[in-house]
Design brief:
By secondary structure, the protein is mostly helical. It folds into 2 domains: 139 residues, no CATH class; 32 residues, no CATH class. The protein has 9 helices and no strands. The longest helix has 26 residues.
């Protein structure tokens, strides 16, 4: 499988979890929920579907869960719908996209935390356990953010700052721009017309 199919596989498993949670809330059948999850998440025909990761299918699965949930998971589910919508917005590739990538990953991390809250809510764990989970999440985030370097290495700034590259250097993954600015790209990417 390629990376796109692995991403679809992950999304399909998440959709299977939403449907399984709905099934478990409504009928309280844990073994049948497990069978349902396995049948949906390991259905490799669905991975090949083009729109399996669309916002509409995701919203349908989340609302299926929300129809059987209490108020706190409904609010969390709506939060997941909003975060997923903004994750799926297309991102234009350009030099100033560092903030767009950071926003995308922050949305994804937020989605995962809200999803973890829903899993905790369904698990029936005590409220003391959520305090421990939040403490561990905060400890992890503080550790990660404290290890991010503030300054870049001198002499290697061209790897970190795109504006230090030559003016005729092509944008990554933008073939039309590369063909306009770079002679090698003009020779490499030729039209295939006869």
């Amino acid at each position: 499988m390629d990376m796109i199919e692995w991403n679809k596989f992950l999304q399909l498993q998440r959709l299977a979890l939403w449907i399984t949670y709905s099934f478990r809330n409504h009928w309280d059948q844990h073994f049948l929920s497990l069978i349902l999850f396995v049948c949906i998440s390991l259905n490799f025909k669905l991975i090949r579907e083009r729109n399996i990761t669309s916002e509409v299918i995701h919203t349908l699965c989340v609302l299926t869960y929300c129809s059987t949930a209490h108020i706190a998971p409904i609010v969390a589910g709506v939060g997941c719908i909003v975060l997923y919508y903004y994750q799926k917005k297309p991102t234009k590739i350009h030099w100033e996209m560092k903030n767009d990538v950071q926003t995308y990953f922050n949305l994804r991390i937020g989605y995962n935390y809200i999803f973890a809250f829903i899993e905790w809510y369904l698990s029936g764990m005590t409220s003391g356990s959520i305090i421990l989970l939040i403490f561990l999440i905060l400890l992890f985030n503080v550790t990660v953010f404290s290890q991010i370097p503030e300054e870049r290495e001198q002499g290697r700034s061209e790897w970190f700052d795109a504006f230090n590259l030559p003016n005729d250097y092509p944008y990554p993954l933008n073939i039309s721009d590369a063909m306009e600015r770079c002679n090698t790209a003009k020779k490499l990417f030729k039209s295939h017309q006869i």
